Amino acid sequence: ASAGANTMGFRAVSGTGLDGDPIRSNDHLGKVVVVHFWASWCSGCAKQAAELVELREMFDEQDVVIIGVNLDGADQRDNVARAAERLGLNWNHIYTGDGWNTPAFSENQVVGIPLLVILDRDGRPRDSSMGTRRLKDVIRLAIDEQFRSRRRCHSNHLEEGASNDSVTDPHGGGRMHRLARSTGGRTDGIR
Description:
Shape: globular
Structural class: alpha/beta
Number of helices: 4
Helix content: 25-40%
Number of strands: 9
Low-confidence stretches: 150-191
Distance between the termini: 36 Å
Largest sheet: 5 strands, mixed
Strand order of the largest sheet: 5-4-3-6-7
């Protein structure tokens, strides 16, 4: 579903955060990423903020990451930081000061805010929405699908007669070797 952005050709978002550090959605492959396009002057964004804060509390940060992409114009960094704090948006925010020309907006053809885009654990867009009504269900589905994929991959590998010492990494990283000997017998897929 698309509302407010072209999710078919959605590009990973990247830019400089409010603190000056780089932010890249692809740094979070293996997690579900919620990209939140917003502006400090947007009343709809302010109304949506409480739901996003609730969402953040609902899902474990190991499973779901929220990245804000801010639309405010030049010389508004301090204003954006105050707005994020006031609204409780205590996650990383990309801010360039370029308004609608911010690369994450222009490259993804964002035409309205607030906008949420859900990226699955492989960085592919799953859904976009102007609201949070279906967001929780989409995130749960993305988390569950990845879990089922891992179980299927592990089961198929074991059925093929492989030992329980390694399984195929569903994220494309080759083999995950179980370090049972060096971790005191733990076999939880540590690389």
